[in-house]
Amino acid sequence: MWNLDDLYKGFDDTYQQDIKKLEDMTTSFKSLIVKKENMTPVVFLESYLQFEEMMSKHVRTLYAYASLRYSSNVNDPEPLQYMATLDRILKSTTKENVLFTRYLKTLDLEALSQQSALIKNYLYNLEREQDSAKYMLSESEELLLTKLREVASDSWRRLQNMLTANLKVPYRDQVITLSEVRNLAYEHDSLVRKDGYEAELKALETVEDAVALSITNIKREVNVVNEFRGYTSPLEPTLKSSKMTQKTLDALITSMESYRPSFEAYLEAKAKYLGHQEGLPFYDLFAPVGKGAKTYTYEEAKALVLEAFYGFSDHLGDFAKRAFDNEWIDVEPRPGKIGGAFCSNQPQIGQSRILTNFTGSLSDILTLAHELGHGFHGEIIKDNDPLHWSYPMPLAETASIFCEAIVNQHLLKTINDDHFKLFVLENALQGDTQVIIDILSRFYFETELFKEATKPVPAASLKKWMLDAQEKAYGKGLNQSLRHPYMWLMKPHYYSAGLNFYNFPYAFGLLFGKGLYGLYEKNSKPFTKQYETLLAYTTKASVEDVAKTMNIDVSDTTFWNQSLDVIKRDIEEVIALFKKTKDA
């Protein structure tokens, strides 16, 4: 379990007092908006920005404590109650937020920025807010929508969380959690992997109807709201929130699709290596190959990560050591704890909290490095001004993917044995395949889902669309009879009305991170400082402008192809090692 004491020591008097303080702050905010007509635009905007800085710190701390408590035990009703209280307080300012955004439409922000250093500092934020005004509904409609979301998409999301976190999975002669059965996919014993896969599918079938209702009602809500706001597609607001253009996304997807045959060849080669003749069964996607595979203790994982991180920079190594030493990480799976992994940056206290479901595989170590990468991103931006603490989704994966590469390359440099090299290199390729090929399947699936989400969609249709998407993305690399029809059911990103198409950012992050790592290998001395400068800038500019700091054009396929060429070389080496070590 992690230690949350630096946030709060419980829902005690201090927490209650801070909730009361938040209520007082919202009252002051409403008063400020009312007074705007009696103030000059410069004075008003400065007052508004100063207030938002103060509010940002306060809300982050309150909400983080409740949400982190909930993530570690979804069966505890207390955190949910406080999250609902916080949502109610914050949503009480909906009318005033609408009035402020509409007011921005009347201002020449560029001219005002010449009169105020504070406005100039947050000009990009204000311009984005000004642009969003064209998609706003009336004050009463925005208020109604805010209130209805609490009992609509927010509740559907929590239902999915609870059903999957509490799902009991009968496996052989025991009952385990969904996280535990999914981790069996990394086991060395092929029968364990197969039995785990079959147990998982059977257990998921018991909740498919309820979760199907959850996902389709969330997407229906998104479609309805987007239509009223005037968006042309559900992808448009995601691109805007991602600070990314359609041209950049098109270039990314085009490159990913053009390299799909290389991944197909890798999967077919792995299938034959494992004795399958008609493509790889889904349960063997993460099967370890080669020799030297082992189950790592958490202490061994920590030592490996720290050694690799310190090899890159003292700053990165010191950050990770602080996270380990100060109990910032909730490590092992347990009933009631949500699945997967995440990092919650808390720049207002200069810390982060990380959740994993560590069971000892090399993939778990890379996941740990990944989440610590997110934490390091938080370490860099904590020195930014408070309204520059949030980065867009595509750039959110940059530091995490980069840290995975650091650990993986560190391992590879120490290996002389072909069998162990195959194990490590192919393990990394598993992750690359997920982020390129499986992300393509998720992108295809969600596109189809949004197209059809005008009514409740039965689980049977969702399963068909997922299988179709997997066939389109994986091709012959995946056994057509042994795919995974429920990949929509346990991925939490599908269940947030505000995070639609949260799939391509992972591919962006992987390939952007690999491209940056290539620059680091070419000239490591100046790179570390440039890299930290780039991370700090991710909260202040568009994806395209951030990339330009390293002379990268992400709207052109050239950069993405160069990054994919790196993976293609790994694929070719892994296929060669399959042949070399098969009978050795």
SSE layout and pairing:
Blueprint (H helix, E strand, L loop, with lengths): L12 H22 L6 H32 L4 H15 L2 H11 L4 H5 L3 H5 L1 H10 L6 H13 L1 H13 L3 E3 L2 E3 L1 H6 L6 H16 L2 H22 L5 H7 L4 H13 L1 H14 L24 H15 L1 H12 L3 E2 L11 E5 L4 E5 L6 H20 L11 H4 L1 H16 L4 H35 L6 H16 L29 H19 L1 H14 L5 H6 L8 H25 L3
Helix pairs in contact: 1-2, 2-3, 3-8, 4-8, 9-12, 14-26, 15-26, 16-17, 16-18, 16-20, 17-18, 18-20, 20-23, 21-22, 21-23, 21-26, 23-24, 23-26
Structure notes:
The protein has 26 helices and five strands. With 584 residues, it is mainly alpha-helical. The chain has a domain at 13-151: Butyryl-CoA Dehydrogenase, subunit A, domain 3 (Up-down Bundle). The strands form two sheets. Strands 3-5-4 form a three-stranded mixed β-sheet, sandwiched between helices. A two-stranded antiparallel ribbon has the order 1-2. The longest helix has 35 residues, at 418-452.
